[in-house]
Amino acid sequence: MTIASMLIGVGILTLPRAVATYTQSFDGWMSILLAGCIALIAGLLVSKVAIRAGNKTFLDYSVSLVGRPVTYLIAALQFSYFLGFCSFETRAIANISKQYLFDRTPVEYISLAFILVVVYGVSGSRSGLLRLNVLFLPSVLIMVVIVVSFGYRWFEFENLKPFFITPPLGIVQGMKEVIYSLLGFEIILYYIVFMERPEKAAKAVSYGIVVSVVIYLVIYHLVVGVFSNIGVMNIVYPTIELAKEIQFPGNFFERFESLFFVIWIMTVFNTAAMGFDLANECLSFLFKKLSKRYRLLIIAPIAYLICMAPGDMAEFATLGTMISYMAILSGILLPVSLLMFGGKKKKEEKGNDKSGG
Amino acid sequence: MTRAAAKRRMLPLLVAVCALMSGCWDRVEIDQRGFVVGVGIDEPDNKEEGKHDEENRKGQLEKNQSDPKQSFKVVYQVVMPAGLNTNKGGGMEGGAGKAYFNMAVEENTMATSMAKLSQRLSRAPFFEHLKVIIISENIARRPQKFAETIDYFLRESEMRRSTRVMVTRDKAIDVLNTHPPDQRLPSAYLEELSDNTKESSRILPESRIGDVHEFLLKHKSFAIQAVQNGNRNYSTMTEAAVFNGTSNELVGFLNAMETAGLNFLEGRVKGGQIKFSFDNRLGVFNIERMSRRLECKFGPDNMPEFTFHIRVEGSVGELLHAPDTLKEDAIDNMENAVQREIVKLMRMTTNKLQHEYNCDVMGLREYLFHNHYRWFKQHESQWEEEGHLFSTRPVKMDVKVSVRRSGNINLTED
Q1: Cα distance from B366 to chain A (closest Cα, Å)?
Q2: Which residues of B touch A105 (CB under 8 A)?
Q3: Judgement on whether residues B247 and B123 belong to the same structural domain of the protein
Q4: Is any Cβ of chain B less than 8 angstroms from the Cβ of A227?
Q5: ipTM for this prediction
Q6: What is d(CA A303, CA A81) in angstroms, rounded to the nearest whole number?
Q7: What is the rounded distance in angstroms from the CA atom of residue B262 to the CA atom of residue A158?
Q8: Which residues of B touch A228 (CB under 8 A)?
Q9: Residue B11 lies in a domain
Q10: pLDDT tens profile A299-357
């Protein structure tokens, strides 16, 4: 549950466009599936690290493996990643709300309000945050079902044809975009402490990834079927436009997208709050003496500054890719290398035991 | 004690929060909004303006004329809520006046024309209930102008992709002034009129701005609804405006019959009548259902040949001096007559599209793209433009009609 709601963030709104830009007609489904497989493998590896860490938090575990100085580095890296992640989500939601909801409210103010709410959410108990996920995710799924079932009115199967015409390179590029939207499962490293049965972490991670891949696929095929590939390429937020198209019979509820926004902002809130919470966690490792309140007070302005740094859409996209690279580095490569390192160490220990015995 | 103190300390904070955090930047009360329900885009009429308006207006006009870019004359139809209300009260002859007014603005771009509109209106223009956009022929015929005009309506977040776009031979402002007795708003009237595809086979399916956007991006030739100004009380929508996919400009119109033919070719007939004659008698066939399948065969020269397989089902609507409508051979006769009629319609359309306009509106290009991608990629540029492949492709019609019912009666007179 948690994993799925961490993965489903802003990506769901822009992903169809990113995929459609690199692929032709409906071929993006291959990109999504393949990327899902890769994410699944990476997710399994990462959760293995998490399981190995067991009751210890990830950072404590890494101290026992690679020593304190390196762990400081790791923590700093993770901290900046989660911080960037949180600000990215905030800015994204501010941009979109500005576009569709608040015409005149400055973006600065929207993101400030959002960050304040996130800070409030994070300053509570951490397990409460996780429970919020469990609360929100079903409503997201219901929303997707509604969008899909009412959106089918404009669905044209012809738009999906012809199949298999994208060159492999395009599919790979599309995959890259999807993977960015699937990053985030590395939170299991931190949240495994809260699981009743940590040995099930791998299952939880794969469940979360599969759910998000299925949702992406469903939305993607619907959006392409409705707007056609080239239409999707040129609509900035295809999923929102789709929600705007929906009209319930009888003009009773003409503005469906407002409801869609409510639900969707809830999930983005979750995503951002978890990013914020983990940034806080990493900071607590770096500076053990600070109390939580001070840590939050330090992080919040930084997050706000990062979030307001990009001036236009292009810079914002650059920020997005930067954060994605950091995610790959700190979320996948680091834990996996730790896993390899840990495996080696274990073997050595065993060898030592044998020779000692 | 400490708790109470803490509470007391919280109080100013609470007050501050209430004072500072509430409020809304974007609040516009509903009675302050000017609901724009229709937009018409004409080319500016120079003579009239020069006569009527004051000097500064004239100066502006001259500037416009010296400007190589021609500007638009944009007509906004704004709702007057008062007019709507009195109608409900029941005062028919009170003539509380119209529920709308039209305001024309001349500008080069839509967004600035919107700004100009708000300089003249007491209420801020609000577009979320925009129903129709009407573009006059003169604008649509000019290269690129059509796409320029609808850009704003696609880009702005208040706009919906389901707004209707129509073209008119007449002045858009005249169409927006149509005043049907049973409808308060001409725009709402036009929107509902455009939905009447179940009643008539001669109305194209509604042309939503989102679909038009896709056509423009795909460089597909397309047809959208064309509206004609009848008189003060009605407009008709039985024409189709044909746009060329490469230049994205209006190339011509299809008349009512040809529009029906196009609807058959695209398989989008939902209802309507076909008039047919056999044995010197006149009959009317009600269409109830149709299906369409396009088949494509590649000849020895690797060029495609198309066949439209069309099945139509329906009932007898009206027969003058009827034969026994329950007899097998009479039914066969009628079916053949209707079939000839439909083929005739489709032939008319294909002839006009292939030989006069050279615009592939009937979806052959799409079909090739979807089903014969490789061939299509090789011949893409020759389809409409250079090679005139489209206009020389043979198109066959295979129409089968079934008359299922004869209505309530068999014969009227004996």
Answers
A1: 9
A2: 24-26
A3: yes
A4: yes
A5: 0.71
A6: 11
A7: 19
A8: 214, 218
A9: no
A10: 888 888 888 888 888 888 888 888 888 888 877 777 777 777 776 666 665 555 544 43
